[in-house]
């Protein structure tokens, strides 16, 4: 690793832990959301990455949704935060147990406004109860339906069925978001080459009714021509 690469790695670790501690001290949900956005702005600015929404006219300005997005990089949640920064849409991320226990991301993830998903849990009732409480408070739910990062060459991997169940149980319209740019490649360029003027493009899809019986992945692929 070059000196520049080491320096950005150290900075990222420092920033993530710093905001993890700040988030732990918050007293309101809004404070969490504000800090999440500040973290996204700070880190992406350091990486020289700009987020651009291609069809801003489709960005909802308020309301509650099950926001679904493709997932190819560790900065995808930050990209979503940036895309919705000038709206009143806010949400809790569904986060895997691995992230809660992560040495690097754990403190941040546990305190940033997330709902723990433990796939090995014998009973999923606490998970769905937490979602219902968050929705009752007026917030959206953010999820990556692929379940984990897509490390394949294809634009999208298979969706898990749980996302549709969340929408149905909570009567949430589904808001599809497509990170058009391969964010993982951009992130690697930002770290390895320290390039400037990097850009990640996002597209907003049409709302899908929670009662729509078409498989979610099918709707998503058709909408974004994947």
Under CATH at level 1, the class stands as Alpha Beta
> What is the helix content?
40-55%
User: What is the number of strand segments?
Assistant: 7
Give the CATH architecture: 3-Layer(aba) Sandwich
* CATH-defined topology: Glycerol-3-phosphate (1)-acyltransferase
Strand order in the largest sheet = 1-7-6-2-5-3-4
- Please describe the biggest sheet, giving its number of strands, its sense, and whether it closes into a barrel: 7 strands, mixed
* SS field, number of helical segments: 9
How many independent structural domains? 1
User: What would you call the structural class?
Assistant: alpha/beta
> What order do the SSEs take from the amino end to the carboxyl end, as H and E?
HHEEHEHHEHEHEHEH
Mean pLDDT: 93
| Model regions low in confidence, pLDDT < 50 over at least 5 residues | none
Rg, nearest Å: 17 Å
Shape: globular
What portion of the residues fall into strands of 2 or more residues?
A: 15-25%
**First-residue to last-residue Cα separation:** 36 Å
Verbal overview:
The protein is α/β, with parallel strands linked by helices. It has a single domain (3-223), classed as Glycerol-3-phosphate (1)-acyltransferase (3-Layer(aba) Sandwich). 43% of the residues lie in helices and 16% in strands. It has nine helices and seven strands; from the N terminus they run ααββαβααβαβαβαβα. It has helices at residues 3-24, 29-46, 76-83, 97-100, 106-111, 125-136, 162-170, 183-192, 216-223, and strands spanning 49-53, 66-69, 91-96, 114-117, 140-143, 174-179, 198-204. 34% of the residues are buried. The model has no long low-confidence stretch (mean pLDDT 93).
